[in-house]
Amino acid sequence: MTTSTDRQIWLRYLSGPDIDSLEIPTAAVVEAIDSVVAAHGRGETVFEPRTHLVPDNGGVGHFNVLRGHVSTLGERGVSGVKVVGDFVPNYLEGLPSEMAMATLFDPYNGTPLAVMDATFVTEARTGAMTAVGARYLARPDSKVLAHAGARGTAFSNVTMLDSLFDLDEIRVTSRRPESREAFGEQLRAATDTPVVVVGTADEAFDGADIIVEATRLTEPAPLLRREHIRPGAFVVPYGTVSAVEPELLDVIDKVVVDDWAESRSGRFGALRHHVDTGLLSPETLWAQLGEIASGAKAGRETAEERILFWHRGLSILDVALAHLVLRTAEEAEVGTMLRYR
């Protein structure tokens, strides 16, 4: 007689090169994120706000721990946990500033399904969330994209937005000249849209239709200011340490977040000051993006609205994209099968 302890359990391990070999299309990533955002709006997901592990390491970095479940994935749904390090000085060691591992589980019996390098998941889901936000909240005729920040999710942000809009110009900047110049060259190799590298956030942001602030500040500084935001602009600030002018919301018509509970959690985030002081509250918040994606609330209603979208990175996005990676790897028979027991 076979007992539960006699049953072999295998899981799929996917390395970074394994995932790179899959060449998952940008459109598939964006659609996976759009779908899970709508599921969140319908109440078909479960997640807990991220927690932070801050080692005694002199302040060089910290870990984020994200946990989530999506009922609409596969026949049984999928649960997952991701741990991602955020270490800004890593470039000095030739390492990415963000490295992550993700695990997926069967939610009915706890069986581990996969362990994977989640660097791609982190970068792609962040860029896709920016793009999905723009799909609902930016003007369809947006022509100028400005992006501050050149590492981590920057490439995904720009290329995924470029895939959705008929842009005339992409402006990029970052603190270090060598970093922004290299980013500009990387983008020119990936798109036909003209890419302009500028020296300051003021030059990048001024009058742009879509503004993404993804800087890696160590101390708050008002890089994104009211004077940059013209009528009709779509603004996405999501740096870990705020680069947002405290008075910025005075000129914003609608503020949308990925999840209000997540917005209130932790000590980091672009609008942390605004939440902590009550400038952003349930009364001043327009909607969660899932409410808009599921049709419960309106997104952009006029061409003149200035709309700000703050997304902190929901665990359910990691679960949805990791599931897409796993499903694609299973079909391609990519990865290493590891015996769990």
Verbal overview:
The chain is 30% helix and 24% strand. By secondary structure, it is α/β, with parallel strands linked by helices. It has 2 domains: 8-121 and 316-339, ornithine cyclodeaminase, domain 1, CATH 3.30.1780; 138-313, Rossmann fold. An 8-stranded parallel beta sheet has the order 9-8-7-10-11-14-12-13. Strands 2-3-4-5-6-1-15 form a 7-stranded mixed beta sheet. Helix 5 links the parallel strand 8 (169-173) and strand 9. Helix 2 (26-41) packs across helix 10 and helix 3 packs across helix 10 (315-332). The two termini are 18 Å apart. The relative contact order is 0.20.
Provide a count of the helices: 10
In spatial order, strands of the major sheet run 9-8-7-10-11-14-12-13
**Structurally, how many domains make up the residues?**
2
The CATH architecture of the largest domain would be: 3-Layer(aba) Sandwich
* Helix and strand pattern: EHHEEEEEHEHEHEHEEEHHEHEHE
Q: CATH first level of the largest domain: which class?
A: Alpha Beta
What helical percentage do the residues reach? 25-40%
DSSP E strands, number: 15
Q: Segments where pLDDT lies below 50 for 5+ residues?
A: none
Mean pLDDT: 91
Question: Between the first and last Cα atoms, what is the distance in angstroms?
Answer: 18 Å
Structural class: alpha/beta
CATH topology of the largest domain: Rossmann fold
CATH homology-level superfamily of the largest domain: NAD(P)-binding Rossmann-like Domain
InterPro entries: NAD(P)-bd_dom_sf, ODC_Mu_crystall, ODC_N
Keywords: Lyase
GO molecular function, one term: ornithine cyclodeaminase activity
Organism: Frigoribacterium faeni
